[in-house]
Automatic annotation (TrEMBL):
It comes from Methylobacterium mesophilicum SR1.6/6. Keywords: Hydrolase. InterPro entries: C-N_Hydrolase, C-N_Hydrolase_sf, Nit1/2_C-N_Hydrolase, UPF0012_CS. One of its GO terms (molecular function) is hydrolase activity, acting on carbon-nitrogen (but not peptide) bonds, in linear amides. It comes from the Bacteria. This is Carbon-nitrogen hydrolase family protein.
Length: 285
């Protein structure tokens, strides 16, 4: 039987345009977390590079085999003996880029990878315009992967707004869900915490989400507030702002079974159809 208790950590970052500096910050964060007792460490989405310019992004991004951040994090996982999830890095995928997460074992081997399913295309009231689909290729497969303590469901950032994905991961055996992110400040202020807690409550799962935070070199501003939530929706740890830092929380996987027994909604789902009825009701004159 796997152990049910361990310490999880989120490394909150403010990645910029220099992949080497970002790599070094990620490695330092993993080392700090391991030194403070973490057995599982997660970094944010776009750990290796935050860059909104398509031209600059393509100039820096390499293939998975050539990526120096992936190589360095694999080495620090071996060195410290911890399990590390790279929230994501950008890697070449044909004529576009994959936003790819990696789960790395304590031996430094890649256990699993996951390409972000949902791409963020939006025009914000602030005037910001995002078109991830112009640069990134979306994934096609959800991923549940083993850790020494529990099964882990991998997601990234915007995925958090699609509850069906998290239910499917939980039904496939995931007890811990991860949603590392590069959430914009505006949407984060409005929705970040409620979405994290909702996904935990709906599925009776732990949710671990390391985040980017602050004003980045490319002009983007991200929300931070890396967070770890338990299966009852309680926030166990919160970075409390946008500054780079490491947060930790004790995880007891036995709480998953307890929460799911108290609210067995995963067992009570039923197939249904949606019927749209009419005719349209006229308003009173």
């Amino acid at each position: 039987m796997p152990e049910s208790r361990f310490t999880a950590a989120c490394v909150q970052m403010r990645s910029g345009r220099n992949p080497e500096a970002n790599r070094d910050a990620a490695v330092a964060g993993v080392r700090e977390a391991a030194g403070r007792g973490a057995a599982f460490v997660q970094t944010p989405e776009m750990t290796s590079l935050v860059e909104r310019s398509r031209e600059r992004l393509f100039a820096e991004v390499t293939t998975e085999a050539q990526d120096r951040t992936l190589a360095a994090v694999r080495e620090v996982a071996r060195e410290t003996g911890v399990v590390v999830q790279i929230g994501s890095i950008a890697v070449r995928s044909g004529d576009k880029i994959a936003n790819r997460a990696y789960l790395i074992g304590s031996d430094g081997d890649v256990v699993a990878s996951y390409d972000k399913l949902h791409l963020f295309d939006v025009d914000l009231p602030s005037g910001e315009r995002w078109r991830e689909s112009a640069t990134y290729t979306g994934g096609a497969c959800a991923v549940v992967a083993p850790t020494p303590w529990a099964m882990l469901g991998l997601t990234i950032c915007y995925d958090i707004r699609f509850p069906g994905l998290y239910r499917a991961l939980a039904e496939a055996g995931a007890e811990i869900l991860t949603a590392p992110a590069c959430f914009t400040r505006q949407t984060g202020e409005a929705h970040w915490h409620v979405l994290q807690r909702a996904r935990a409550i709906e599925t009776g799962s732990f949710v671990i989400s390391a985040a980017q935070g602050g004003l980045h070199e490319d002009g983007r501003e991200t929300f931070g507030h890396s967070v770890i939530v338990d299966p009852w929706g309680r926030v166990l740890a919160d970075a409390g702002g946008s500054e780079p830092c490491v947060i930790l929380a004790e995880i007891d996987v036995a709480q998953v079974a307890d929460a799911r027994a108290r609210i067995p909604s995963l067992q009570h789902g039923r197939p249904f159809t949606v019927e749209r009825v009419g005719p349209k009701i006229q308003a009173a004159q």
